[in-house]
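Weekly modeling sync, notes
Attendees: S.R. (lead), two postdocs, one rotation student

Agenda item 3: backlog of single-chain predictions. S.R. asked that every request posted to the team notebook include the full sequence so nobody has to chase files. The rotation student volunteered to paste the first one in as an example of the format we agreed on. Action items at the bottom.

Example entry:
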Amino acid sequence: MIEIRITIDTAMGLILERMKFELRLRQKQHIISPGLKLDELSSIELISLVEASILDTVFLLPVDLINMETNLVQIIFGTVRALAKTLNREELLLYSNRKAHLLIQPICELVDKSLKDQSFQYN
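Predicted structure, as returned to the notebook:
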């Protein structure tokens, strides 16, 4: 297993920045009411925003890290727990390792499939 060496604080900073960006995008599209801040969102909106931000961040990682067995799930789990404390939102404390695993599983399957397909070799 490859260990990704990043602190929870650093990961939380990355996710928070992505969450703020995603919030602005959703407010421009009127999916979320303009003027709301992260700590004012409903539970469903907040969890959706957190998961979208995690997915965006994971897609930025090198394919090798996504494809190999790493501690990515534990990092995501710890980061969401830290966000719960930072944003004072108890519903984020319910986020589990299993949810983190289920969140990134489709990405891992997509990467595996594209690596096996090898169609990228002819581009």
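Discussion: group reviewed the output briefly. The two ends are 31 Å apart (CA to CA).
Action items: rotation student to repeat for the remaining queue; S.R. to check formatting next week.
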